[in-house]
Task: inverse folding
């Protein structure tokens, strides 16, 4: 399979790495047409989603909504924050059903959390 279309290549770290990620809450991400199901991208997605769920809950997520992935292309970042990464960044996302707040789990240092 062409690696440019292989969803199994977008997560290249062990599940435990998620524990070093940062979280932001964002109002509102309404277009979810481009989210990915972790089951399509990982051999054992439950290892990752259980850590993501725990982290989202600790940060204030209500526990509703589906945990998904979002791919962000490399041209959306300051090049100095990606260390020559030309594949972009995949973030973990869940949209809270009650109020529409999105919770995003992402590698430290790639976003400005003060926005």
Result:
């Amino acid at each position: 399979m062409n690696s440019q279309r292989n969803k199994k290549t977008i997560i290249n770290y062990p599940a435990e790495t998620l524990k070093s990620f940062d979280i932001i809450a964002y109002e509102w991400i309404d277009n979810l047409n481009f989210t990915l199901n972790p089951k399509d991208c990982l051999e054992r997605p439950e290892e990752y989603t259980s850590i993501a769920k725990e982290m989202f809950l600790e940060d204030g997520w209500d526990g509703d909504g589906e945990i998904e992935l979002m791919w962000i292309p490399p041209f959306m970042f300051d090049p100095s924050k990606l260390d020559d990464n030309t594949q972009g960044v995949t973030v973990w996302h869940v949209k809270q059903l009650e109020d529409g707040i999105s919770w995003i789990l992402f590698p430290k240092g790639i976003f400005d959390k003060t926005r």
Q: What stands out?
A: The chain has one domain: 17-106. The longest strand covers residues 89-95.
